[in-house]
């Protein structure tokens, strides 16, 4: 990659993948490294990453993300790789911050780690989509995730077969201001 | 930068800055572009970025982040630039997801945008620190942020005077597993 801004612009939510092309283990490892190195409030690292690449299991996970009624996420079955992010208990100081400031720091932390993950995937020539809507209980059961633990995101990764598209974003003066709101 | 993983490894939370060296406007603009291009649930973009570079005002913001009792964040006054992230109301579909899945998507979204922001800063040769602990009401007052809007993060940016240090992270097998928890 040339520079970070180009990488960030290039990365898009991909919803079509080559189902016959799996992701190389060394790429998976570098992507996970990038996620684990992410900063977090009080360095709590309140996350656990479950790599799902078993063909049968990843199809079952994909089924748990799609919803016939809403007609969403059917594409997830094309992807050879899912990385599930489970929220773990934060450390004492981060937990104190969450309580004192009424801000759920683990959600912010996992957002940061997810960004690292998909940007690392992009840099490896892979497409990705961050999925937040799924049947949490079904995934919990499929992956033996202890009850009580929240499953925040499923990141779908593979070789994209989707064309690049231009991004739609709010106008700059709507979201940026200087020295005041 | 050579590759994303190197950039992610290189970036650290910097807590010492050259107070006499301001950040070039074109760098600020590229950093904001990288933040605005971040993905978000249902493309809600539930954020507003306030750039604070006015010398007097940024010192007042810095005061609102430091806490004498806890002895934290005194370094923030050295930084020439603060970018405050205010949470905006998400769109209908993201709001529905937050309600239906009991997951606060705007926190995840703002985590992703914050990651873009600090990684872009790193790529510009700048240091940064993500601050979540501050006197929210004081900052709201200083920047005329409407009451009711939450101020999630203050990202402190400047030319770092801190040495690189190695990162402490949990062991890999503690946070990563394959095809099951």
- Output the number of helix runs of chain A: 7
Q: Which of globular, elongated, flat, extended, rod-shaped describes the shape of chain A? A: globular
- Summing up helix and strand content along with how strands pair, one would put the structural category of chain A as alpha+beta
Task: Give me the Rg of chain A, rounded.
Answer: 17 Å
Per CATH, which architecture of chain A?
A: 3-Layer(aba) Sandwich
Give the overall average pLDDT of chain A.
95
Please identify which CATH superfamily of chain A we are dealing with: NADH Oxidase
Number of strands of chain A: 5
User: Any idea of the CATH topology of chain A?
Assistant: NADH Oxidase
Q: Give the topology string of chain A: H per helix, E per strand.
A: HHEHEHHEHEHE
Strand coverage percent of chain A: 15-25%
Query: Which protein chains make the most extensive interface, counting residues with beta carbons within 8 Å of the other chain's beta carbons?
Result: A-B, 76 and 76 residues
Low-confidence stretches of chain A: none
Distance between the first and last residues' Cα of chain A: 35 Å
Please state how the strands of the largest beta sheet of chain A are arranged side by side: 1-2-4-3
CATH level-1 class of chain A: Alpha Beta
- Looking at how many chains there are and whether they match, the oligomeric state comes to homodimer
The biggest sheet of chain A amounts to: 4 strands, antiparallel
